[in-house]
Amino acid sequence: MPGTPTTPPPSDRPASSPSAAPPARCTGGQLSLSLGRVSPGAGNRYAPVVFTNTGEESCSLGGYPGVTLLDASGERIGESATRQGPTAPAATLDPGGSAYAALHTVARGVTDKPCWKPATRLQAYPPGSTWALRTSANSFRVCGDVFEVNAVKPGSHP
Hints:
Number of helices: 0
Distance between the termini: 67 Å
Order of helices and strands: EEEEEEEEEEEEE
Helix content: under 10%
């Protein structure tokens, strides 16, 4: 009929491209944890907390991890790290891939507040997880009551 819209045959329709679903959030069971080397700079100390995907499928991490320091008996030293800085887009970790969150404290003597005792272990909850991972703290020490953690970013160090 004239004036009646027609539907183009299937071969003439534009192809719809479904967007790929983002990978599932990484869980503690598919991650390993390590603490990178402390880097000094202008009275500050930074160290990357590195999450590595040990699973067989890609996963994603986004947000802030929960980080605490532990002594040799497993007791917490001081308070948990406070969140600092803006969030970043979720990082996709392919199998073997890593993401990091930077820890920050200040050097001894920068403030009049004392340093905490050196940590034996570092405990971190991946963003969105209630399962904690632990690793050697490499004697990481908080000074001046400044203990901050940034949001997770792709890679293994800043």
